[in-house]
């Protein structure tokens, strides 16, 4: 599903965020990326999302070599990837329903289909009764669940999450991780960047560890 | 990207799916257009004061050249009634006798470039002047008739153009006994060229103000883009194309332009309505049945189209310039 082949990323100011990183993630796999802040976790996710381009090496996502994708094709790639952000990235002037519906609207679904899918996604994260409310009325954990509902509403085959439990207490964090594990069980490839080793080491999934932009463990060849 | 087989063995389901896919895409495209149009209008109406201010600025900027163009149109329709065929008035020397004058008239009438002549003797002219001017009493006290004999010459139809009328004027002026030959067409021509100049000025002013409208809308859209930067980033992150992001802003520009055009239409119509009464009173004093022509429905629709396209274009300029710069990162 995702293959990194000796990928390096150097930012224009000279900082090497990733050095010669190689790994691959199979379809249906759930993988954690961990490391201290600045180890390159976010850069790794940004490269998959085409928010950044690698300086060297090649990346294949969903069978597509990202090198061949120009700016016009970037939106299509992103539509096939569900993303969850640490700071939720919700639109606070729109209802919860409208927030979750956004990817479907972009992908061009019909009105009725949008309603059906949004309710299914909100049901999965346990927020079905709140669909008419505004995001500000929700707690941090609930906002994160709206973010997750938005990430999965389009039924992507790949789900990325960047520090999804960064601002949550341990109990809520575990709940959120369980949610990701649940999506993984129904066939979604999941890649979660998290520095919460205490939490992720208790889960039975591969862990990729980065330090100073280099990959330390978890190459996962084959 | 899935490849679609074109062979007859292709599953029927696949074919129908691709057809509905095309239709669905068109329908969802319309859906998003409708959503963008409604949503951008709703946004404008939720801050009515600042929106109205922008609408007023655009409206006034459009009303100025439009109002002047309407005034020019009225002036043209008024003056077209005066565009009579040219006449050359020959004022004869006062020492010339009436008989000599009659002979001269006969000579002029024989010319092939002259259609008709009319002799106005100095006595007739005085009588006419007394009647028309209202200075009858004053004129009666004059010892001497100050008016000269006059021959009014109408050029033949073939010589009605300004060029040949002027040739005729010079030739007649050279006739012995003619004090002055005056081409009556001149003031109409002067008026026409004056109006042409005014039209050029109005066009230049209009172009300048249209540029102003473009900049006002572009700047307003730029601020709207800045205000919604976060939203744009999120939409791009979840796969929104540039066109998807652009759409609501283009509609915002369109609404600004259309609203401004509506206001300028109202302003011009109101001004004309306000002028109508005093103008028709003035026209009555000049025994004219002149009445003011407004924009009319066609003119109004043209104004709306102009405003709408200015809005759309201004928004496009702003969007093309600023949306590219907003990228997730």
Topology:
The complex is a heterodimer of chains A (222) and B (329).
Chain A: E1 2-10, E2 16-25, E3 30-34, H1 41-48, E4 56-61, E5 64-65, H2 74-79, E6 81-84, H3 96-107, H4 111-124, H5 140-152, E7 158-162, H6 170-185, E8 189-193, H7 197-200, E9 206-211, E10 214-217
Parallel strand pairs in A: 3-8, 3-9, 6-7, 7-8
Antiparallel strand pairs in A: 1-2, 1-4, 4-5, 9-10
Chain B: H1 12-46, H2 48-80, E1 88-92, H3 98-110, E2 114-120, H4 122-133, H5 136-140, E3 150-155, H6 162-173, E4 178-183, H7 186-227, H8 229-237, H9 242-285, H10 296-322
Antiparallel strand pairs in B: 1-3, 1-4, 2-3
Helix pairs in contact in B: 1-9, 2-7, 2-9, 7-9, 7-10, 9-10
Q: Please give the alpha-carbon distance between the first and last residues of chain A.
A: 12 Å
Shape, per Cα inertia axes of chain B: elongated
What are the secondary-structure elements of chain A, in order, as H or E? Answer: EEEHEEHEHHHEHEHEE
Strand content of chain B: 5-15%
Q: How big is the Rg of chain B? A: 34 Å
Fraction in helix of chain B: over 70%
Query: Distance between the terminal alpha carbons of chain B, to the nearest Å?
Result: 27 Å
Q: Please report the number of helical segments of chain B.
A: 10
Share of helix of chain A, binned: 25-40%
Uncertain parts of chain B? 1-19
**Topology, number of strands of chain B:** 4
Total strands of chain A: 10
Q: What's the story with the biggest beta sheet of chain B?
A: 4 strands, antiparallel
What structural class do helix, strand and pairing data of chain B support?
A: alpha+beta
The major beta sheet of chain A can be summarized as: 6 strands, mixed
Low-confidence blocks of residues of chain A: none
User: Which strands sit side by side, in order, in the main sheet of chain A?
Assistant: 6-7-8-3-9-10
